[in-house]
From TrEMBL:
This is Glyoxylase-like metal-dependent hydrolase (Beta-lactamase superfamily II). GO terms for molecular function: hydrolase activity. Residues 31-203 form the Metallo-beta-lactamase domain. Pfam families: Lactamase_B, WHD_BLACT. It comes from the Bacteria.
Length: 286
């Protein structure tokens, strides 16, 4: 994609952070996956993206011969982690970050299916750190979009690489069985307690007022939950029927994603003993 969102070009966002956009734009990835390079001397590469030769070439051009300390992964969806393998061959850097997950993903989006070949050399957990010359990355556990999702804080500049947990263009899909709405909401609550200056997401522009956006995302999800409960109070329904009433005018390509998010809400409501299911039909629990 050229013009306003050029792919393959290294753009400095601040002295320690450079962004390279991958050419994998889609209804689910917006303009494409954004890979971030952290550092000036030695580098960390966050979410290297798809295994696309042009994107790999662009990343290596941005590296410009500097040592790569780590290839960092927020979560192993196919639009985020497959480029770890060619980059590791080219740089020798370890793959670190999110744990691998084995799960049958019934989600709708081909570009977000799990990367079955993802193999981290080091799994990071809440509070774990790595560092280079003038930079530190600290893992912030943010499950919900996936069970293994991590964000990474850059304390030197109070930036947060938010992956797909908080994006700069849309709310993220929460797709069971690995996506979990209760975990997602808890992770948003967790971010509200932080004082990060800016978020650099995997998709969409930088978020300059992150707490305001996160507050809005929490409100949006609570509104969706209330909408589901009101629909079920009026009549029992299955997920497609609920989506057709809740998402009027939605792009048909996005309907499967909406159905997965509604299902995630229903599972959360079921676990809280507010609704029950019989086959594919959901109803208010009496």
């Amino acid at each position: 994609m050229m013009g306003e969102f050029p792919t393959g070009i290294a753009i400095e966002l601040e002295p320690l952070v450079t962004r390279v956009l991958a050419p994998n734009a889609s209804p689910y990835t917006y303009t494409g996956t954004q890979t971030h390079l952290v550092g000036v001397g030695d580098l960390a590469i966050i979410d290297p993206g798809p295994d696309d030769p042009a994107h790999i070439d662009a990343l290596m051009a941005a590296v410009a011969g500097r040592p790569v300390t780590a290839i960092v992964v927020t979560h192993h969806h196919r639009d985020h982690s497959p480029a770890t393998r060619p980059l590791q061959r080219l740089t020798g850097a370890p793959i670190v970050g999110a744990a691998s997950v084995t799960v049958s993903d019934g989600g709708p989006r081909a570009d977000a299916a799990f990367d079955a070949d993802y193999a981290p050399d080091r799994v990071m957990a809440e509070g774990d750190r790595m560092s280079g010359a003038g930079w530190t990355l600290e893992a912030v556990a943010t499950p919900g979009h996936t069970s293994n999702h991590l964000a990474f804080a850059l304390p030197e500049t109070k930036a947060l690489f938010s992956g797909d947990h908080v994006m700069g263009w849309s709310t993220t899909i929460v797709s069971p069985p690995d996506g979990d709405m209760a975990a997602y909401m808890a992770s948003l609550d967790k971010l509200m307690t932080r004082d990060d200056r800016v978020y650099y997401p995997g998709h969409g522009e930088a978020v300059e007022n992150p707490r305001r956006l996160v507050r809005g995302m929490l409100g949006h999800r609570k509104q969706r939950e209330g909408q589901i409960l009101r629909l079920l109070r009026s009549a029992d329904a299955d997920v497609p029927a609920m989506v057709s009433r809740m998402y009027v005018g939605l792009d048909r390509r996005l309907v499967p994603a909406a159905e997965r998010s509604v299902l995630a809400h229903l599972y959360d409501l079921r676990d809280r003993a507010l609704v029950s299911e019989e086959g594919e039909t959901w109803r208010i629990r009496s």
